[in-house]
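Risk register update: the risk of archive-format incompatibility is retired. Evidence:
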Amino acid sequence: MNTYTINTELVSRLIKKQLPQWVDLPIRPVEKGGYDNFTFHLGDEMSVRLPRDEGHAPQAEKEAYWLPKLKPHISLPIPAPLAKGIPDEEYPFYWSVNKWIDGETLRYDNILSLNEFAVELSLFIKELQAIDASNGPAGGEHNYFRGCPLMVYDEGTLQALEALGDLVDTEKCLEIWNRAKASEWTREPVWIHGDIAPGNLLVKNGKLSSVIDFGIMAVGDPAIELTMAWTFFDEESRRVFLQAIGLDVDTENRARGWALWKALITYAAEDKESESAREAKRVIDVLLNE
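Archived output:
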């Protein structure tokens, strides 16, 4: 159990002790700071990220080490770690200070075109996959097995289907899931962001302007990178997105499996009238009616 409270007071004390050159800068919470980390503005040009708990703790060190190596190969702005805080008696994990990146979180109403955005996102994914991944961290427990074979989530998926019963078409779901499990990535591992979702995509002037929050990046199977095809895009832009990335049918099928797994476990666990449950059911319907 946490014995600390992550708030502006804690951040202020950590800055004062470990990074006193910034002690006079104002600190305030970021409005949409994400789930894995608590995020705070530090002045106008920096942010502070503190992992939520032990499960998310490896992210700060991983980002501090790898993002400077990836950044030169990516056309879009990505986070640039400026300093790394160390564990102490008040907060037991590594934490980071990053350059603040301006932009609005992706919404349907702040982009010019779904099809154009699909191409823009595909270019980022392809740039990331083109970077030498030979020494990168393999997917595993540290990133919730993104980039790993789907079998790791087989039991949870089947339990969710059993719990949902007649609320979903179990037979069709199993067809998608079994097809997804039937193949594995047999080429060399590639870099993956691991959590390509609207909350981690920033927009300026109607276009993709930055990708943030690389906390669960790894090297492995790129199928997880394609799930936006079903969670965000419509039928036409989904086709544009998948064609622009140009991966094989088996990888697309594994991507459907990743999208289905997340939607099923969310729908099974949440109040069915909640926004997250309704969104999960929408994704399930998209996959079943494709």
